[in-house]
Amino acid sequence: MASTFNQSTREVLTISRRHLLTGAGALACSSLLPGLAQAADDNWPSRPIRFVVPFAPGGSSEIVARSTAAELSKTLGQNVFVDNKPGAAGNIAMQEVARAEDQSTVILGHIGTLAVNPYIFDKLSWDPKKDFVPVSLLAKVPSLYVVHPDLPVKNIAELVAYAKKNPGKLGYGSAGNGSAGHLAFEYLKMTADIFMLHVPYRGTGPMMTDLLSGRLDAAAVGAAALLPFIKAGKVRCIATGSTKRLPQLPDVPTVAEQGFPGFEMTQWYGMLAPSTLPRAHVDKLAVECAKAVKAPDALKRLLGDAAEPIGSTPEQFAQFIATEQNRWQKVLKRAQVKPN
Hints:
The protein is an alpha/beta fold. It has helices at 2-42, 59-75, 91-98, 111-115, 117-120, 156-165, 180-192, 204-213, 223-231, 279-292, 296-304, 314-335; strands at 49-53, 80-84, 105-110, 132-147, 171-174, 197-200, 218-222, 236-240, 266-274, 308-309. α7 crosses α12. 39% of the residues are buried.
């Protein structure tokens, strides 16, 4: 009887020891999981990053995005590729990226999507504050104010005088309602207290065709797209929207120099991530973006197209966006801008 009891006891104790060991092993493994998870975080990104551009290929957005992506691919250890997804003034791409949960998708933020769309569309399917986190302001591209050579004006003062003498006669074009070119001229009109007719087009290309042919009097376009035509004498640049003169156009004064202190009109581009991206990844991206836009190859390309490399912190970019939203909300309301 005692032997049977001892045998049973030994079996129970053996089974218990096995359960305890198994449980201890499980606890030991579970205690390692946070460390393993952190190690995985430290190794982010572990897959290629898709850098969405909410515009068609070409122009300043393409230059900024591809220059940045090329440098990030070198420093992050993963390929960063540009994916153009145009449509609906950038809203299609913004909605898609706002819902992305793969932690490998970011988007190029722009004056239009962040400082215009929230105030001209009655309802958006994405929220610039809740759905996105600013990563870094990458670059600014000054708007150039140009006229057709046949128009008898050579500077802002002469344009203002001509517009006041001929109210409603002058027309300026843009890539569409709410575009950067539209904002640039509405801002000038408001500042100089003049009236000019707005002619919206479906893109910069068709607008430039009419400007070059003389069917349009004036326009404000990003420097990269205009420099070749200015140098060829096909359009006359009467001012830059930058805070200082451009090396490519040293004889062309800024708007601020021509009687409007503090005037600045630049298109700007920055990186945004879905709000679900962990802060550690956002900070890592911001640091690498700041390096990327000032790397020798990127710097050469950006400066060659009159773009000003920035590379900010997330906090600096967030403050910049808020300031721009406050500024353009007033202009949009006064100009009664509505989407196409």
